[in-house]
Amino acid sequence: MSTLALGFTLTFVMITIALSKWQKLGLEKDIALGTIRGSLQLLFIGYVLHYVFKTENIALIGIIIAIMILIATHNAGKRGEGLQGIHWRVAASIAVTEVLTLTLMLGLGIIKPTTQFIIPISGMTIGSSMIVCGLFLNQMNREVASSKEEIEALLALGSTVRQAIQQALQRSVKASMIPTIDGMKTVGLVQLPGMMTGMIIAGANPVEAVRYQILILFAFTAAAAITSIILSMLSYKLWFTREMTLK
User: Fold this and answer.
1) What is the C-alpha separation between 176 and 168, in angstroms, rounded?
2) Sign of the C-alpha dihedral, residues 226, 72, 126, 131?
3) What pLDDT does 174 receive?
4) Cα atoms in the Cβ-side hemisphere of radius 13 Å centred on 7
5) Is the terminal CB of the chain with fewer CB neighbours within 10 Å at N or C?
6) How far apart are CA 214 and CA 103, in angstroms?
7) Tens digit of pLDDT for each residue in 19-60?
């Protein structure tokens, strides 16, 4: 894509800003800042990856993945504001998912052990896990608020904290996985995923692009389940006080 063509893509941003102003949504500033910030971040990572791909430095790969996890943790952790220690639990959930997913892919020979494969797939896995964490925390806050009387009644009857909150946990895990599962059901019919589309535009064989997309699809489904279940196991006590009553 030429620089001129890239510049013309700002037309879409202008349309979005115009619609926001017309409907008085008040999103003009956020859209403008998001456009500038997103563009600078992508340009920066583009140059970083260009350098990393040339060097194949293992330490740099580890640093980049660690930074991705930290940023994802910060973003998802905001959904659990007020829950002490939620950030390290989110970080642990995302990190374990990333390690398991990457280990399986490399160990089974699904992807090549090069930066060209490891970093993009790690980024997609971590990003997917971040979204799952945010959805889980949002849903758990709603579930605990709406089921407060039920949970307190179970505690009064002698249930453990885990037993009292189990139903809320299950519903939250399911809710956090719904976007991933819905994506599986409609992929190829309603949407052509980003990785597949990018490969096709770059000139790759569509069948080869589909194979890689299937890999990502299955990996994301497993990653969503692993992330949400680990986070539920690590965090459910945070909605209770030390005396085991709801906060």
Assistant:
1) 12
2) positive
3) 93
4) 3
5) N
6) 18
7) 988 988 888 899 999 999 988 988 888 888 888 777 777 888
Give helix 161-186 / helix 115-146 axis angle, nearest 10°.
130
How far does Cα 230 stand from its chain's mean position? 14
Tell me if 213 sits within 8 A of 195, measured CB to CB: yes
* Residue appearing with tokens 């980024």: 123
Show the tokens assigned to 136: 């889980």
Give the residue-averaged pLDDT of 181-190: 76
By the 8 A CB rule, do 239 and 247 touch? yes
Q: Which residue has the tokens 């009553």?
A: 245
Model-level pTM?
0.83
Phi, psi torsion values for 81, nearest 5 degrees: -55, 130
Q: Residue 104: what residue type? A: L
Q: List, in order, residues 6 or more apart from 162 with CB less than 8 Å away.
A: 236
Q: How many CA atoms lie within 13 A of 12 on its CB side?
A: 6
Read off the pLDDT of each residue in 202-206 and give the average, rounded to a whole number: 77
What amino acid occupies position 147?
S
Is 161:142 a contact under the CB 8 Å cutoff? no
Place of tokens 């940023």: 71
The SS3 call for residue 114 is: coil
* CA angle in degrees (0–180, nearest 5) for 92-93-96: 80
Which two three-digit tokens encode residue 40?
A: 């600078």
d(CA 46, CA 40): 10
Q: Which two tokens stand for residue 101?
A: 């997913």
Closest CA to 129 of 222, 57, 192: 222
Give the whole-angstrom CA distance, residue 145 versus residue 178. 21
